[in-house]
Amino acid sequence: MQRCLSAISHSAFPVWPFKPSCCHKISRNWPLCNLLRQNFTSCSDFETAHYVQLTRLDFKVTEQHVVDFLKDLRIVGGSEGITLTLSPSALRTGKAFVNLEAADDVENALLLDGETLLNMAVGVMRSSKTELNNSQHAMEAVRSKTGHSVTVVTVPKSANEESIAEFFFPIKPASIQFRTGKGVSNGKKWETRKAFVDFSSHTEALEAMKFHKSKALGRGRASLLLLSYPGVCSCYP
Questions:
Q1: CA distances from 234 to 79, 81, 169 (A)
Q2: Dihedral of CA 20/23/28/30: which sign?
Q3: Whether the Cβ atoms of residue 101 and residue 193 lie closer than 8 Å to each other
Q4: How many whole angstroms separate alpha carbon 140 and alpha carbon 236?
Q5: 64 and 22 in one domain?
Q6: Within a domain: residue 74?
Q7: 164 and 123 assigned to the same domain
Q8: Could you check whether the bond before residue 230 is cis, i.e. omega within 30 degrees of 0?
Q9: 165 and 114 belong to one structural domain
Q10: Is there a single domain that holds both residue 154 and residue 223?
Q11: Does a structural domain hold residue 143?
Q12: Of 20, 48, 44, 45, whose CA–CA distance to 34 is shortest?
């Protein structure tokens, strides 16, 4: 394989170190990229999206927190361009992928490596859509619709949107999403079902938290987690 690459670099591309503009984000081996280009009809066949990955995030971070952290950088689709990943057990991983509009946005985002968000020093690194897709093989991420969410930690298998809405009455949820986490402990398989409930405002989310371990859902009292931005959100469609 190495000899093949060497032959490509020295015989097929005498113009080395020419850098094809559409390929420089994919590989440092510019001649190999140029060879690959000949087998595709256009640059759109390559992964040309601009991604960064944020690590060491507080589990309470919302999409709006990420927008604030990245300041004036251009995020594709606002909150739709931010993915806060989940583990196989449907818990936050402390990582987020952000789709930025241009290469200079990525470069500026990298300058924020080590800056704090909710008292945590955040790691910022280059990433890709492929890494994002791979991260979601275990569990599809939940994207908030409002930025003001409450997670119901354990939900009965029989629960549906109607029963969750009834649980939070008289507060009306803006949206309800379910995820089922799986794992193995001491050789035994287990499942856990969670509900991610959006509300229209931070005030409503705080009101909903009053039901934490004080109201029954199924056979036990519900445990709730607050994942709400304490202010007005601007990044949600």
A1: 9, 14, 27
A2: negative
A3: no
A4: 19
A5: no
A6: yes
A7: no
A8: no
A9: no
A10: yes
A11: no
A12: 20
- Sign of torsion, CA 135 94 150 112? negative
Instruction: Count the Cβ atoms, other than its own, within 10 Å of residue 45.
Output: 12
**Which residue is listed with tokens 């799986």?**
182
Per-residue pLDDT of the chain (237 residues; tens, 9 = 90+): 444 444 444 444 444 344 444 444 444 444 444 444 444 433 433 457 899 999 999 999 999 999 999 988 999 999 999 999 998 888 899 999 999 999 999 999 999 999 999 999 999 999 999 999 988 776 888 999 999 999 999 899 889 999 999 999 999 999 999 998 887 778 888 888 999 999 999 999 999 999 999 999 988 889 999 999 999 999 998
b/e code 169-190 from CB counts within 10 Å (16+ = b): eebebeebbbbebeeeeeeeee
Closest alpha carbon to 227 in 182, 195, 180: 195
Choose one of 108, 135, 162: the last residue of a domain: 135
Of how many residues is the chain composed?
237
What pairing do the DSSP bridges indicate for beta strands 92-100 and 50-55? antiparallel
Which of 78, 107, 135 terminates a domain? The answer is 135
Specify whether 55 is located in the same domain as 128: yes
Domain range for 55 is 50-135
The amino acid present at 41, given as its one-letter code, is T
Q: Are residues 108 and 154 in the same domain?
A: no
What is the CATH classification number for the domain harbouring 87?
A: 3.30.70.330
Total number of domains constituting the chain: 3
- Look at residue 214 and tell me if it is in a domain: yes
